[in-house]
Specification:
homodimer; alpha/beta; 434 Repressor (Amino-terminal Domain); Rossmann fold; 3 domains; six-stranded parallel β-sheet; 43% helix; 15% strand
Chain lengths: 315, 315
């Protein structure tokens, strides 16, 4: 093991000078920099984490992929991951993919270059074939065949949404779908449809792509056809509430609206939002714990956490 | 320049095998891994970004430090930085410091190890002495002596808050301070106090530390003493509104509340929040552009963007 002292002796300068160059922390002339770097290379000195990472061991960094950091769901997940990571002397690198496969690939490259100890991803679609990485991966809120994942029971959550609206006496439901290809949204829709079907409550489905058009045009005639609206997440519910209220539609008297996630803001919107609570922070913490076990070669099974209804004033 | 092919020839294996080892992407025996890595080192092969970074050039990664990713202000700043970064073929590493100096130091280490091309920081306090990095730094929403920074006019914003409440006829104002030591909050308070003083409107100041106690205890007798409340940001305003409304205090009739930031959610809360709009996304974009100029050796001056009042139903 070559030490800083060995290196300083070889170059014929002080340990402080060598340290400044290697840590890139303070002045050193280009000439001095070159001499020290060449000696470091020649003597196979490993100055830092990056060098250690190159040396085939894994770094104490994990990569986290989220589709959209602007949705407060993800910062909360990230806090769960990060708090647990810090406790274990790990750090996280966050990649925001914007549902864009190219961006995701770039971040996976960066994770490889940093020799990340593993990856927690909330970006993998159900049709995903290629791993793009040989590192341990835990999928968060996404279930993809042959992968370890953690989610909060999306099927149950979708059922709870429909059950609650039916209990509140709705007769005609609009079921707004989330982004296609994510298992979480698929299962929520599946759960809601199952319960609506069993109870013979007629419903229409609005696709994620059609949603923006409906809300931006404020197509109130369309929305008013229903007395219950099931939203794929709280963010969509905020926008739906906003369009309804701005057009003088009474919520919950005329239309009842239910969200999904229970973001912190859902208690503050008007009317305060009935929603399904996911243990968001816990999902992040557990995902990190699972990843650490996988790294230690301990066998890990996919986890499903519980969800519950939070009744507020929008239903 | 040593190529993969040179390396494969030297080790006596296929290019695919060498690539698998160097990119850590697929199976290679420990023995094979060792042979390839040793040859790579011997021939001074630079397999990837990390190796390039070690070789003294800067990587195409920039580090971003935020105090609290749960405040939607920061994800929006990050989107601005990231969108501009991607356009320029850069990537960002995000560090969430939680106002914790140790966490921040750790992230600065990671940024050094990744040989980041520069750092955008929203975490530096006014009393900050030590840089901890020799890389170019742009401070965002923070002004610290002898550093390049970008902010939206906090002094003006604070003045606008007070002006608006006075115009709405308030007679006794509660001025809630933001976290100490951040220039942005200091300047907002300064602006508000100046205008309140000029107009001889009496006011009391509630420190950031005292705020939680007041809100958690729901000390409504204290809050009701005032007919106007100036909040340091929208998140605080949401909580203040919530306590007031839950205690049957009429907003804006009895108490008028004004926020700061204009987060997306501020149009959805009840009552919808009057606030000061910062060009949050633009702050992020410009910060990245400034950093790129600094990297090119172009002289850069600190920037101050404009803010404006958004009038809604809470005043």
């Amino acid at each position: 093991m070559v030490t800083l002292k060995d290196l300083a002796k070889e170059v014929g300068v002080s340990v402080a000078t060598v340290s400044r160059v290697l840590n890139n922390s303070g002045y050193a002339s280009p000439e001095m920099r070159k001499r020290v770097m060449q000696a470091a290379e020649r003597m196979n000195y490993k100055p830092n984490e990056v060098a250690r990472a190159l040396n085939t061991s894994r770094s104490n960094i994990i990569g986290v992929l989220v589709p959209d950091i602007s949705n407060p769901y993800f910062p909360k997940v990230i806090r769960g991951i990060e708090d647990e990571a810090i406790k274990n002397n790990y750090r996280i690198l966050i990649g925001n993919t914007d549902h864009d496969f190219d961006k995701e690939s770039k971040y996976l490259e960066i994770f490889n270059q940093n020799n990340c100890a593993g990856i927690i991803s909330a970006t993998w679609t159900v049709t995903r074939q290629d791993n793009l990485t040989t590192r341990p991966v835990v999928l968060l809120d996404r279930v993809v065949k042959e992968h370890i994942s953690i989610e909060a029971d999306n099927l149950k959550g979708g059922k709870l949404q429909a059950h609650h609206l039916i209990q509140q006496g709705v007769h005609h439901v609009l079921l707004i779908k989330g982004l296609e290809d994510y298992s979480s949204f698929e299962n929520r829709t599946l759960g809601s449809r199952e319960v609506l079907g069993e109870n013979q409550v007629p419903y229409e489905i609005l696709s994620h792509t059609a949603l923006n058009g409906t809300l931006e045009s404020g197509d109130i005639a369309f929305l008013e056809k229903f007395d219950g609206i099931i939203c794929p997440n709280d963010l969509v519910a905020y926008r739906v509430l906003n369009v309804l209220i701005n057009h003088g539609v009474s919520v919950p008297d005329q239309v009842k609206v239910i969200g999904y996630d229970n973001l912190d803001f859902s208690q503050y919107v008007y009317p305060s939002l009935t929603t399904i609570e996911q243990p968001i922070y816990q999902l992040g913490r557990n995902a990190f714990k699972m990843l650490m076990k996988m790294n230690q070669g301990i066998e890990v099974e996919s986890e499903v956490l519980d969800v519950k209804l939070i009744k507020r004033n929008s239903t």
